[in-house]
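This part of the workshop introduces the protein records we will be handling. An example says more than a description, so a record of this kind follows:
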Amino acid sequence: MLLFQQSQRLLERAFKLLSIRDHSCHELQEKLLRKGWSSQSVNDVISYLCEKGYLNDELFAEKYVEYKSLGSPRGLYKLKMELKQKGLDDALINRVLSGFSGNEAALAEIFLKRKSGTLKRFSGEEKKRKVFRMLQNRGFSAETIYRVMESW
């Protein structure tokens, strides 16, 4: 009975975390382990949540990329690193990001339009260097950066 109560509390904690925002399996597992739950119990709960469809790494990755692309544009490299930090495997990341590269230039332009006020005070080479660094720090590829800078 005590074991059932602990499992129930762990499941409730997992649902509470998922109600706040989506998590990858690895992310949720790490959070629950940090709270002191046993690894066997956490693994059981993670398996249950995956089996019932409450946790889905592929869906999580797709939503994450969509959300980050719209709200605060990022390049392919930055998204890839962020998804790795969330504990997703390379094959899944590559599959989710495979259709993304075509949109990278458009996202870079959106980002620069949002930053145009900041960039007004710079001119010439200083402005080009600033734009390049800004886009590079956001994870855009050099190819995309050069393409956007030519048209910008």
